[in-house]
Design goal:
There is one protein chain. With about 270 residues, the chain is α/β, with parallel strands linked by helices. The chain folds into 2 domains: about 35 residues, no CATH class; about 220 residues, 2-enoyl-CoA Hydratase, Chain A, domain 1 (Alpha-Beta Complex), CATH 3.90.226. Helices cover about 35% and strands about 15% of the residues. The chain contains 9 helices and 8 strands. Strands 1, 2, 3, 4, 5, 6, 7 and 8 form an 8-stranded mixed beta sheet that branches. It is globular.
Length: about 270
């Protein structure tokens, strides 16, 4: 955030940026977790100077010659100083190594096109090849419609990569932030072994109006909020932003190979 006095997008309360930063960009009046860019997330969660980025050269093309897509993509690159809507890499959290992906909603609402899907897949394959867990911070508007079927194919590709990760008994932890919607929700976001979410995050596949028209029924109030999903078993845990780094560090410690004795088996040491 570059503004000196940014406003909360929910209650419109104005905050001094220094105080807001100290509060982990959580509104002091209504508790809303403001959207964060990828570099800020990395600074907040990763151990200092441990993040090493993957695939910095990868950039989107315009496979369908979609009107104004190249222009919008270029504007996002200039706005964020990033090549795409996700940063992936290797880092340490609380001393534990992991691959780490962070989506950036400033870049075309972090929509998943061919490059985003490829970067996530390569990150998960790196985890498979190096016996490392994986973490993805999700905040996205869904599939990048300017790439049509090429975008939708990323759902299958990332899901297949997660299957390979599971086959090697390596965990994927996903953190769902506001918003997590569309094809991203329908693929890797909901395939984590442990699914965390920030408070009051919008999480869903289709919009309420589309769902109501499809099923012909009224929907409960707030059914696409993280609190409702956690209450109904769709999420494992709600985590306040100030506790997210510690929570991820604990999960990495619990699932670390060093946490188990060498002769550990599912039957137990005496089995």
């Amino acid at each position: 955030m570059s503004q000196l006095f940014p406003k909360c997008s929910r209650c419109q309360t104005t905050h001094f940026i220094a105080f807001l930063k100290h509060a982990n960009y959580v509104c002091s009046k209504c508790g809303f977790h403001l959207r964060l860019d990828a570099p800020t997330r990395i600074k907040m969660i990763c151990d200092k100077k441990t993040f090493s980025q993957f695939d910095t050269h990868m950039k989107s093309i315009d496979p369908l010659d979609f009107p104004k897509y190249k222009q919008k993509n270029l504007e996002s690159v200039e706005k964020t100083n990033q090549a795409e809507a996700i940063l992936t890499g290797l880092c340490k959290i609380k001393g534990f190594s992991t691959t780490f992906g962070v989506m950036d909603p400033r870049f075309m609402m972090a929509s998943m096109g061919s490059v985003v899907g490829e970067k996530i897949t390569r990150m998960l394959e790196y985890s498979c090849n190096h016996d490392l867990p994986a973490i993805i911070i999700v905040s996205s508007g869904g599939a990048r419609m300017q790439e049509g079927i090429f975008s939708l194919m990323q759902m299958a590709k990332t899901s297949a990569a997660i299957k390979r990760l599971n086959h090697k008994q390596l965990p994927l932890f996903t953190v769902l932030a506001d918003p997590t919607t569309g094809g991203v929700t329908a693929s890797f976001a909901m395939l984590g072994n442990v699914i965390l979410a920030e408070n009051d995050a919008l999480i869903g596949f289709a919009g309420p109006r589309v769902i109501e028209q499809t099923i012909g029924q009224s929907l409960p109030q707030g059914f696409q909020k993280s609190e409702f999903l956690e209450e109904h078993g769709m999420l494992d845990m709600l985590v306040e932003r100030k506790q997210l780094r510690n929570t991820l560090g604990t999960l990495l410690k619990l699932h670390s190979k060093r946490a188990y004795p060498r002769n550990f088996s599912q039957k137990g040491e005496d089995g």
